[in-house]
Amino acid sequence: MSQAGSKVREAKIELYRKQGKIHAKATDGRFNRLRWGMVWITQLVFYGACWLSWNSHGNVRQAILFDIADKKFYLFGLVLWPQDALLLAFALIVAAALLFLVTALAGRLFCGFACPQTVYTAIFTWVEARIEGDHLERLRLDQGPLNARKLLLKSIKHGLWLLIAGWTAISFVGYFTPIRTLLPSLAALAIGPWESFWLIFYALFTYVQAGLAREAVCQHMCPYSRFQGALSDPATRNVAYDRARGEPRRNRRQPGNSGDCIDCGICVQVCPTGIDIRDGLQYQCINCGLCIDACNQVMDKIGAPRGLIRFAAERELAGQPRQGVLQRPRVAVYLAALLLFAGLGANQLSQRSLLRVDVLRDRGALLRENAAGQIENSYTLQLGNLDDTARQYRIAVAGLPGLQIAGQREFTVAAGSVQPVALTVVEPDPAGLSGVHPISFEVVAAHDPAARIKEKSSFILP
Fold first, then answer.
1. By percentage, how much of the chain surpasses pLDDT 70?
2. N or C: which end of the chain has fewer CB within 10 A?
3. What angle, rounded to 10 degrees, do the helices at 148-173 and 30-49 form?
4. What does the alpha-carbon distance between residue 251 and residue 262 come to, in Å, rounded to a whole number?
5. H or E stretch at 38
6. What is the pLDDT of residues 300-343, one digit of tens each?
7. Which of 442, 445, 405, 395 has its CA nearest to residue 426?
8. Helix (H, G, I), strand (E, B) or coil at 72
9. What does the alpha-carbon distance between residue 378 and residue 356 come to, in Å, rounded to a whole number?
10. Which residues contact 334 (CB under 8 A, 6 or more apart)?
11. Rounded Cα distance, 32 and 98, in Å
12. Taking the CA of residue 94 as centre, how many other CA atoms within 13 Å lie in the half-sphere pointing to its CB?
């Protein structure tokens, strides 16, 4: 192809990018199959997990549920409460460290294969292709005049998009309101205001982001694309064009020295964000690898080795030796942070107690003397049972000779509740003692003696 022809093609590509949304050419290959594999895995988890049930001590409930009204998070057999917010902090830090580590090793793999924007855009684009045809047919349809055929195809496509977005919203809200309760309420138009808001908002959000905005999210709205450069280094493996092998671009049928790139432009045509990877790494690139699949097919046809476009680091393309993972400071820091906070989170989870105890003194009467001349102090113990079944607890007191609890010492607390317990503590022989003395309450679970908590308080004598 002549230089003039190449310039014309580049001009057309640039013009094409500026005309509405991008209609990427479909391609097949290893990375496309991996991409669709992630679509299936993520959506089977998202749409299916809200339907899972969990039998806890004969009580059947939804396995994964954010019960905001009762301030609980059910995760199969685990029940988390607001007091477990530290576990959430550890989980978020681990997720961030893992994302940073993956980015340092292989660029925006998350964006290319697991990001919800990428996943739902792939689903919506698949629907569009089934209704309107391949990328050229879709482009012609968009640029053509409005007629009955165009109106029919667009109506069917947007109708299907709205159905997918609607079911996505129902599944999302189903993690906060039990899905088996939500659907009958929705059918009867008896859902609450908050559920109505989130159903409408999430459905419209999915429809706009995946159906209308599409590549614009990656190009202009995604904050991750803006700071990914700070997470990578010359040893990071990104989708890259081997310029030394590909240049100069020329038709292989022409005589003379030329590279392997025949300037077919297919790598641009299949790119979901519309970039030309031959211009170097750009922040819009999501590392999906579709340009690799397309270029490999071209290399097979012209009899050239695969890998003109491939996952490669700057050091590799420059002919420099590869660095070991632990020789890269940022990778070592991200890995250390990941292991550290994962360990802290696991330790916090293993040490987590399902019993919470708060001791409150009776501020109205600091002390009183009973008919037998004994000194009494009154307390209220807040017993919190964070388990998902009712538990029985025994209470003991210590700190002064002969100190004891008057009345009931064992209490049953319902599952997932906090029960206030009024206690009267008696010192039968206060002779020789006066003032404020430290004491402690010990609460022990009847079903598990290892589950015990000590809380400090004070006992006041005249």
1. 94
2. C
3. 50
4. 5
5. helix 30-49
6. 998 899 999 999 988 888 888 877 777 788 888 999 999 999 99
7. 405
8. strand
9. 20
10. 97, 100, 101, 104
11. 24
12. 14
**Distances in whole angstroms, Cα of residue 282 to Cα of each of 213, 238, 246, 288, 462:** 19, 10, 19, 13, 78
The neighbour count for residue 187, using CB atoms within 10 Å, is: 9
Query: 351 falls in which pLDDT band (50, 70, 90)?
Result: confident
User: Whose CA is closest to 281, among 252, 245, 310, 246?
Assistant: 310
Distance of CA 395 to the CA centre of its chain: 42
Distances from the Cα of 98 to the Cα of 31, 189, 218, 223, 331, angstroms = 22, 42, 21, 17, 10
- Whether 53 and 76 have beta carbons less than 8 Å apart is answered as no
Q: Phi and psi (nearest 5°) for 307?
A: 100, 15
With tokens 């017993």, the residue in question is 383
Residue 87 to residue 323: CA distance in whole angstroms = 35
In whole angstroms, give the CA distance from residue 258 to residue 277. 19
Task: Please choose, from the candidates 323, 260, 437, 336, the residue with its C-alpha nearest in 3D space to the C-alpha of residue 94.
Answer: 336
Is 187 within 8 Å of 229 (Cβ atoms)?
Answer: no
Tokens standing for residue 224:
């991750």
End-to-end CA distance of the chain: 104
Collapsing DSSP to helix, strand or coil, 361 comes out as strand
Take residue 359 and report the two structure tokens written for it. Answer: 């001791």
Q: What is the DSSP letter of 350?
A: H
Cβ neighbours of residue 275 under 8 Å, at least 6 residues apart?
A: 268, 282, 284, 285
Over residues 36-88, the pLDDT tens digits come to 999 999 999 999 999 999 887 677 889 999 988 878 888 888 888 887 888 88
* Amino acid occupying residue 129: A
Determine the Cα–Cα distance for residues 131 and 154; give it in Å rounded to an integer: 8
Gyration radius of the chain's alpha carbons: 33
Extract the tokens encoding 344: 């802290």
Beta bridge partners of 238: 312
Structure tokens that stand for 5 in this block: 């022809």
Closest of 84, 90, 126 to residue 353, by C-alpha: 84
Asked whether the beta carbons of 446 and 410 are under 8 A apart, the reply is: yes
Q: What is the pLDDT of residues 232-288, one digit of tens each?
A: 888 888 999 999 898 888 765 565 567 889 888 899 999 998 889 999 888 888 899
